[in-house]
TrEMBL record:
PROSITE patterns: CYT_DCMP_DEAMINASES_1, CYT_DCMP_DEAMINASES_2. The keyword NADP applies. This is Riboflavin biosynthesis protein RibD. The gene is ribD. Signal peptide: none annotated. Its EC number is 3.5.4.26, 1.1.1.193. Gene3D superfamilies: Cytidine Deaminase, domain 2, Dihydrofolate Reductase, subunit A. It holds the Pfam family dCMP_cyt_deam_1. One of its GO terms (molecular function) is diaminohydroxyphosphoribosylaminopyrimidine deaminase activity. Pathway: Cofactor biosynthesis; riboflavin biosynthesis; 5-amino-6-(D-ribitylamino)uracil from GTP: step 3/4; Cofactor biosynthesis; riboflavin biosynthesis; 5-amino-6-(D-ribitylamino)uracil from GTP: step 2/4. Converts 2,5-diamino-6-(ribosylamino)-4(3h)-pyrimidinone 5'-phosphate into 5-amino-6-(ribosylamino)-2,4(1h,3h)-pyrimidinedione 5'-phosphate. Binds 1 zinc ion. It comes from Variovorax rhizosphaerae. The keyword Cell membrane does not apply. Keywords: Hydrolase, Metal-binding, Multifunctional enzyme, NADP, Oxidoreductase, Riboflavin biosynthesis, Zinc.
Amino acid sequence: MDKALALASAAQANVSPNPAVGCVITNSKGEVIGQGQTQPVGGPHAEIMAIRDAAARGHSLVGATAYVTLEPCSHHGRTGPCCDALIAAGIRRVVASIADPNPLVAGEGFARLRAAGMEVHVGPGGAESRELNIGFFSRMIRKTPWLRMKVAASIDGKTALDNGVSQWITSEAARTDGHAWRARASAVLTGVGTVLEDNPLLDVRLVESGRQPHLVIVDSQLQTPPEARLFLPGRSVWIYAGARSNPEREAALKARGATLTHLPNPNGKVDLAAMLADLARREINELHVEAGHKLNGSLMRDGLVDELLVYLAPKFIGSGMGMASHVHAEGPLTELAGALPLEFRSVEMLGPDLRIVARASGR
Ligand code: AOF
Ligand code: ZN
């Protein structure tokens, strides 16, 4: 199963909106005779790749065991059911890490395998598989993407100087690592403030990647300039606006290929929770946020942040902007008990910087 998990992990950045799955098939002596991993969307699943691999290597699958990091699917999606392929191949036993939370599968895959007389064992690697596919599980179960907020800050928590200068607080090593996290996300989210200030690309370029995440912009008043650099060939840009319409600007942005959605809250700004639900409907699993202190603050205040990816540079800035502002709707905190509770998941050195992953308590 460790090998199957490693295959799944290697597929992770290429398979959104599908979960990354690995599959290893062994013969009755326990020798590996086939292996595979999920292919980019529309392509074969891990089990099919492993069955094909074994066949290409001339092995019979009769009586074999398949180790797979997710319940084999039982439905006809973009591809056919893996269950049927495993049964047809003559496999005798399936060891799976965890049930598929997709309501179209959700136990039906295991039931079908058992009905065909197969031995099914569920559990090994379950936590790891779920972690690899945390966005997929979030979308299927909570109907909202897994929201990971990336912040680069000085050791005193500043993300920019008072004059807005923020490039570059952290090192090249930290920025490259940031691109690896962008690459595994289904989409990158930013705010129009960042677009106007930095004219960023927000694409994946510092690491190899077979696909570019979609780009989502929170733009209440439709201020995104149609000439912004972020309109890259072949990349989808989704802009969420508030109540105000601006037909001329909308036409210019659509001409650049943007998809526009008005989702106003009662204040006429973007309803962020509704936007996340909409992004889940658009099959966004992990949403990687790189925004300024205002949008960060709104996401925090509304309890929408699942995870923080914080790069800390060994620089002391002293003045300047914090990671997020207006986090507390009631105004500045007067009691520490009101602080948003997090749990540290990991801490690592990247060149001269630190990377800290923290998760909202209970997520
Ligand atoms: C598997 N093995 O490797 C993966 C699975 O549209 P489709 O046909 O590609 O199906 C996508 C669904 O299949 C996805 O939502 C999830 O439930 C499951 N993913 N299942 O047996 C795999 N990636
Ligand atoms: Zn499948």
